[in-house]
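[agent] plan:
  1. take the single chain provided in the ticket
  2. run structure prediction with default settings
  3. attach structure tokens to the ticket
  4. add a short note for the reviewer (M.T.)
[agent] executing step 1
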Amino acid sequence: MRCLGSAAAVAVLIGTSSCGGAGGKELASRPGIPRVSVVAGRPPLSVVEREGDAWGALAIAVATQGIAPERGATAAVALAALVEDRLAARGITEAVVVGGWDGWRLRRLAGSPADAASLVEWARLTMLAPVMPNDPALPAVGRKVAALARRPLADRAVVDVVRCTGEAYGTGDETAPSAAELEAWRRAAHGLGRVAIAAAGNAAIVNAVAEALKRGPAWPLAVANAQSAWPTGNEPAAVYDASGEIAPGAARVLITARSTEPERAVAAAPGLGDPSGPLASRLAALEAPGHVRSVVATAHVDGGCVAATVDLSPRDLVSDAAARIATAAVLARQELAVEISDSASMPGELRGLLAMRSSDPREAAERAAWWALAGRHAGENETRLAVTVGVAAARDGASPVTGDAPDSPPLGARPTPVLEGAIRAEIDRATGASRVPVIEARTRVERGQGEIWVLLASTCGTLPEAIHDAGSGAVVATAAATQAAAAADDARIEPFIATDGLGLMAHGPAHAGESPPAHARRLADIAARALAADALVVERVVRSRTTLLSRSRAPEERALGALGSILAPGHPSWIEPLGTSFGLGSASDEAIAMRAATIRAGPMRVAVLANTNDAQADAAVRAVDRWVARRPGEARVCPPLPTLAAVRPGTYAVELTAGTQSQALLALPLPVGDESARIAATWTAAMLGGQGGLLARAVGATVPGDPPSPALARAWSATVVGAPRAPALVIRLVAPDTTLDAAVAQTRALLGRLQQGVLREEDRARATMSLARDSMAPSLDPRGRVIELWRGPAPLASSPPLDGLRAFAATTLRDDALVIIALRPARGE
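[agent] step 2 finished; step 3 output follows
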């Protein structure tokens, strides 16, 4: 039984519509599900009772695994030809008999119960009749074996692949068997233990087949099925010359994964072959993108197997070919292992669905018959993987596998020890790299919460951005979030945009019946795939940039953008991570794509708030790490921090649109990397802001207990911005245009008094209470908690002493260090 996972595969394979699964209780009561009956001395019969077909169908499956294994597919092809010719000699010409690598299958329509019953009897006679020295079918057998020889393997290195897929290829030693050989093969294969029969159709047809099988004589025993030789999983990659099979200079990677349970292999095929699935997406995100050509899953008598074929284009292998091939091979191998491991094992349900979903009764019967032979491999439930690489010589024969030595062989030259060694060495290096986590992880378990929260972000934040692309990282995060949300079902996806981090946040409840690890993997996959693998859709990039451009024109964003240009010369997004109008308008689509690539290639950190246990959190971390492409020896570091020009204090004017409220920002730069200064600035901001704060007394309405005074400002606040690269204490005043200058003057006077040491203990106590209130809201919101987990707790647990705050004010709140941004609406003539 083969199940196709990709529409790009060859047409002889069975389509993807046959793959899938459903709950056992639902299937048990649904018509069309095969029933397997076993009568002593007879092959097992799978009955697929269904109505509506104009004709019924009969199918027979025979396993030849272990019979003349040195002859490859010859035994199966020869036995299929023998049965086909004998049936034709009796006038049964419509039967389709196909030989594969380790078995053959027959299927034929049955127009009536009598027709179906007679077909069972004729099939038994043709299969059990001995082969005589001058058997009339021998010429037909010789012709089919000769045709097999004309369909040779591309190379002996791909034998493991065809064993996996079950397709018939010649191995170069195809000679027609003698009558004695053919008879030995027939006796070994055509008997109990290697034959299964299936009937599909209405009740009359399937009952006629069952009765005919029961009335007939008992069948002889066949030679017991032999367990196939599985790879150990430690074999080095096989390398062969694929010239003529693929384009010059190209490469083909073939991965086979054997599972002890055939259902797992077949259930994994749809996801692996999905053009928008994890395998295709991860390969497409590589430096040398890989294209999934086909995914074929096969059920065998001793387990299942999946074979994936991945092609790499010649233009992507002009340099560093061996490393790029190895990266794709290791990624594909990893993805096959994950998909098979995650596939549910449900023998009855899956086998039934594969037959039931067939629209043609012949196909339904054939699948039911083959599945009756499928069984488990003896041993532990495990997956064994093998890698085969085909390379094709470039037209000029000059494409190197490695550029290290001048005598390196051309890519695709007849495999030599140097060529094979180069690819195998790179696969070993890539395998080692894949086992080393590249994502920094911080996890916490909050049992009883309704959702899991995953925050994945670049730890470089806006560091790489300059004037011409300020906000490009915000575009990447916003576009990735909207792109992920479109396919996230009930999960919520949000962009995370800050000066110290750019990424995605995913959260959502578990689905019905979803295990805690599966719940965590689903959310982690959504975030990691969008940020670390999938290419951004141009339309979403354009839409995200338009949204951010519109926001950048708001007064607050314009003020922060202008402030960023002064406090972080050349890097305004260090202050305003959402970007500036100039930066967002200047960055092209190509620049945004490059910014996305920079984020993916740099260091990332994931924070996970699990709601069950540590294993659930670990599952999310592993899922995220799986999506991050890596190469051996690569260093994931942020770019070096550039040296900024000195901040130029003074007053700067920004013109707003008419009708907009005037406002001013007063900023005092803080020392970069001085954590004690940041803490003192945070407490100072708390003393300045809020109801009853120092700013309220200076520019606000009359405070109870103070002498009456007019309000110079309508709103005021104080905060610390720009951490960690351009930190500053910033005061914001919103006032009528007529009183803005007076409000600024009063604020400067207030700062002057604070510098002189007028801070009081009650000011510090009020700031402590204010900060405690401010921290309560994030602590009650999992969104705030996952951000805090990602960043790490800020060291604000204890209030600085009053003397420390006065010392900070004396050195920092200097009037000659003030940067003032005055924003006023345009004035008429």
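[agent] step 4 note for reviewer: Residues 650-784+793-825 form a domain with the Cytochrome Bc1 Complex; Chain A, domain 1 fold (CATH 3.30.830.10).
[agent] ticket updated
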